[in-house]
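Tip: read the tokens left to right.
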């Protein structure tokens, strides 16, 4: 760029600084300036002879038609790369981590008797500390409402299961036996039919807490963050 007195100058940003507009003006009268411009012309088009590209000259910040480059552009690019790497690692962990099987004969009849494939499975949590509600609609349109109240005795636990409502405070909630096989099948249903839009990710972390559950949760968070950043 040229200054008001028509003397050409070159603007730099000091490498490593957070201040993108630290500027030094090298006037044409200064020794070596013309030689410096000649060197730049080897890398820049003729119309940009006095504005070398940052990619050709490391550490040099060049103003564009939109103004000076954003100091956070490079940081954002590195952040996106890191997110992609983390997402890939979490996806591998989620795919390879084994799941526990269950005996269908020991699953509670209310869940066992539902016809598959299910039409829908939705999961949500409550602001009472983390109680979980599940709604399953089977192939024939039958709807099963399940409630798993949270307990903090000896840590955050889900020891009870209610059917007929999605919360124990609602009308119709009846407690039933909550065997380990019932728990495992319910977890499997959430895992196979849940979506990032509902609360299945956090419910899986609360009910099982396996590495694949954390991987599923944070991979969906990473995807959501990526979509917001790249919009």
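Filled-in amino acids:
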């Amino acid at each position: 760029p040229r200054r008001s007195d028509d003397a050409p100058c070159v603007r730099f940003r000091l490498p490593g600084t957070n201040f993108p507009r630290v500027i030094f003006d090298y006037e044409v009268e200064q020794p070596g300036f013309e030689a410096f411009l000649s060197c730049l012309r080897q890398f820049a088009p003729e119309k940009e002879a006095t504005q070398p590209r940052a990619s050709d000259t490391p550490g040099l910040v060049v103003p564009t038609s939109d103004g000076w480059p954003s100091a956070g552009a490079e940081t954002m690019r590195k952040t996106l790369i890191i997110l992609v790497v983390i997402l890939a690692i979490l996806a591998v962990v989620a795919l390879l981590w084994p799941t526990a099987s269950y005996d269908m004969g020991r699953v509670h009849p209310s869940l066992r008797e539902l016809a598959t494939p299910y039409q829908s499975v939705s999961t949500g949590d409550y602001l009472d500390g983390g109680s979980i509600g599940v709604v399953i609609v089977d192939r024939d349109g039958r709807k099963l409402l399940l409630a798993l109240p949270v307990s903090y005795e000896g840590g955050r636990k889900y020891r009870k299961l209610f059917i007929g409502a999605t919360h124990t405070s609602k009308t119709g909630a009846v407690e039933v036996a909550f065997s380990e096989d019932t728990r495992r099948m319910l977890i499997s249903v959430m895992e196979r039919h849940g979506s990032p839009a509902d609360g299945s990710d956090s419910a899986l972390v609360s009910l099982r807490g396996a590495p694949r559950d954390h991987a599923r949760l944070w991979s969906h968070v990473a995807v959501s963050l990526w979509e917001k950043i790249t919009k």
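The two ends are 33 Å apart (CA to CA). The chain is about 35% helix and 10% strand.
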